[in-house]
Amino acid sequence: MKTPNERFALSSWRGEFLDPVEERAYRKHVEPMVAKHLRTSLKVWAGLLLSFGFLDFIALGWSVGFALIMGARAISAALLFLLGWRLRYNPHWATSGYAVTAMEIVGFLLFFLIHFVRPDIAIWNIGVTLILLICLYIFIPNRVVLSNLAAACGIVGTLLCLKLLGAEAPKLVGVFFFMCLPTVVGFAAALRLQIVQRQQFALHSEMVEINTSLQHEIERRESLEVELQKQATTDALTGLYNRRQYELLFHRERERSRRLGTRLSLCVLDLDHFKHINDTHGHDVGDQVLRHVAALFTRKLRQTDIVGRFGGEEFIVLLPETDLECAERLVDRLRQCLEQAPVEADGETVHVTATFGLTEVEAQDGNIEQAVKRADRALYEGKQSGRNRVVTASQEGSEDRV
Ligand SMILES: Nc1nc2c(ncn2[C@@H]2O[C@H](COP(=O)(O)OP(=O)(O)OP(=O)(O)O)[C@@H](O)[C@H]2O)c(=O)[nH]1
């Protein structure tokens, strides 16, 4: 794993990232903006080329020389427009810099023609070359190496043209130094700009990475919180509410039924001879039976009914908006369902029954314990009188239902 300093190290003379992966990422990042600016620059370049033809016409009139220069201008402008159009579909050409470098070299070659057709404006031609040299570093975005190459073509070509037109060595040396000046200035400015832009990109990338890892950390902590919350409120084996959570839900439901004046019933149930199931079929099968019971009750009851596991093989069901009579019918249906739905576990069929103790939550019940105690008493009676039955706890005593 590279450190940020290694990843974002820059070449001091190319002004590009030494790491090719980072350089590619940077170019991709700036591609749309660079391609847009380059397209505008190419249009301006082509417009200037064509409009300067007017000066040639004033100097040369309708002549072979004018036709040659205008032809060269028209070819250059057409190539510039073509490149601008292709950039729309290949925006990476802008950041790679090769296409525009080739265009500049072709442009220089056509420009050299003017030296021969209009030797009368040699000083003007050299002046324009000086401006072109500095423009190169703007036209080839983010690639000073390629700008240097195009500038070298421009300088060597201009000197060659002047030599062919008979310029002496001192003049050539003077022009050479003169042309080096904008080249050095353009190179230094572009290199500095390139380095600063890439440094900004490096900072931006680091920020994005830090943000992303922070986001992941937040998500991890959120899911951990959800998991902890689940562990704190539910029973790991059955997924039902545990005793602690059940007490909170009981209080909420009791308050609601008091406020709305509705009835609330509570049922405690205990599987019959569960120890025997464990001893005969093993603890794993016993666990499967507990899960089966939890799933069956959750499926058969309403969404508003609340099922919990109070530990061991004891379950509790809270039935909002249900009076004792309705609750008794409903719980007896549950009892029958359980009796008629044996558990298929590890190739064995295990018949399960349960005994249910039922009570209605009363106004004077301060907490769940009082209601559970009544239901437990009824449950105990049910166990005593033969199991697999619903026993209702009432003020006077308990009523049996088998
Ligand atoms: N497999 C399994 N067994 C459990 C779990 N919790 C408690 N038990 C077992 O449940 C059995 C409860 O046995 P008892 O309290 O004697 O009750 P019982 O055998 O159902 O008898 P009655 O309630 O009188 O019908 C014990 O053997 C416990 O070990 C559990 O999470 N998984």
From TrEMBL:
Annotated localization: Cell inner membrane
Primary residence: membrane
UniProt protein name: diguanylate cyclase
Chemical reaction(s) catalysed: 2 GTP = 3',3'-c-di-GMP + 2 diphosphate
EC number assigned by the record: 2.7.7.65
GO MF term list: diguanylate cyclase activity
Cofactor: Mg(2+)
PROSITE patterns registered for this protein in UniProt: GGDEF
TM region positions: 42-60, 66-85, 97-116, 122-140, 145-166, 172-191
NCBIfam families, A to Z: GGDEF (TIGR00254)
Annotated ranges, domain GGDEF: 262-395
Keyword Cell membrane: no
Enzyme class, spelled out: transferase
GO cellular component assignments: plasma membrane
Entry keywords, A to Z: Membrane, Transmembrane, Transmembrane helix
Upper taxonomic lineage: Bacteria, Pseudomonadati, Pseudomonadota, Gammaproteobacteria, Pseudomonadales
One matching Pfam family: GGDEF
Source species, domain of life: Bacteria
Entry annotated with the keyword Metal-binding: no
